[in-house]
Amino acid sequence: MGTNVTLHALSSGHEVWIAVRSRNPYAERLERSGALILSSHREKIREADCLVYLVGALGRRREADYLELQVRAPERIGKEFAAVNSGKFVYVSSVGVLGFPGGSERPIREEKEICEGLQPGTLHGRTKCMGEKAISSLPNHAILRFPIIYGPYSRTPLWRGIMRAARMGLGIRNSNPFSVISTANASRAVESACASKASGFYYASDPSPATLTEVFSLAAEVQGRDVELWLPMGSGILNLLSHFGELFRLARDIISGSLVVSSEKAQREIGYQPLDVRRETFKVMAQYYGKSGFR
């Protein structure tokens, strides 16, 4: 997500400073693209117009990591920022805070208070709720709840695996609709949140939901293939996969819960305008994941 937000911001003419935990190939690429790489956020904390917290813990195993990266660190950095700067603090959260929402109303709209009445089914979702509550006390903030994010530069095996399976003519069939967001739209949402004077929490998604069937069909199409073998995925398989880690538990919640969310509040209050860029994004993903190593 950070790579995509940075490249979008640079292309929009913004000056971008990035505090990184390590100078990995991603940081080096962004430095060549024009970003200034910092060893600590404190180097520019007084000068930034907007501070965006993008660190997550979805791939971690220890509860202590989730608490530190998704609750304590953003709260600590947010308070440091607010003490010396009147700019906007943007916390990137997740629709994982919803867990298995009751009722049949879709799309889901924002509740009145942060995480009011919600029971997240994952450690990721629970600590994101805690992080949201901590950030909501800041005087100038925006909390963005993204659904499943797709686009290039991800180091998780999820989208790499989907693109590879589709290239081999394999697909997973499931018709449950769920919200997704391209990295292009997620970057636009971050930019809108930074520019807005409004404080609050917002869902941001693509203009329309997707299904696993549609995802695999599009992933195959942009690679010049057809899905020749469909594997059905019901709730039983989703529950089985959920035993393999937090990422799969989150995917189970989103897909089996038909998690479709509304971006109306984000459009109304922060000026977020999602574009229909799914096909274009999948074409870029096909090029990126079709090559080995980092580009």
Radius of gyration: 19 Å
Poorly predicted spans = none
> Could you state the oligomeric state of the chains shown?
single chain
Gross morphology is globular
What is the annotated CATH architecture?
A: 3-Layer(aba) Sandwich
- By secondary-structure content and strand pairing, the structural class works out as alpha/beta
Give the helix proportion (percent range). 40-55%
Provide the CATH top-level class: Alpha Beta
How many structural domains in the coordinates?
1
User: What's the helix count?
Assistant: 11
Q: Which band does the percent of strand residues land in?
A: 5-15%
Kindly identify the CATH topology.
Rossmann fold
What is the terminal separation in angstroms? 16 Å
Strand and helix order: HEHEEHEHEEHEEHEHEHHHH
Largest sheet: 4 strands, parallel
How confident is the prediction overall: mean pLDDT? 90
CATH superfamily (homologous) name: NAD(P)-binding Rossmann-like Domain
Strand order of the largest sheet: 3-4-5-9
Number of strands: 10
Structure commentary:
This protein has 295 residues and is an alpha/beta fold. It has a single domain, classed as 3-Layer(aba) Sandwich (Rossmann fold). It contains eleven helices and ten strands. The protein has helices at 2-11, 25-33, 63-84, 123-135, 157-167, 183-195, 212-221, 235-241, 246-256, 264-269, 278-289, and strands spanning 17-19, 36-38, 50-53, 88-94, 141-146, 148-150, 170-173, 180-182, 200-203, 229-232. A four-stranded parallel β-sheet has the order 3-4-5-9, with helices on both faces. A two-stranded parallel sheet has the order 1-2. Helix 4 links the parallel strand 4 and strand 5 (141-146). The radius of gyration is 19 Å and the shape is globular. The model has no long low-confidence stretch (mean pLDDT 90).
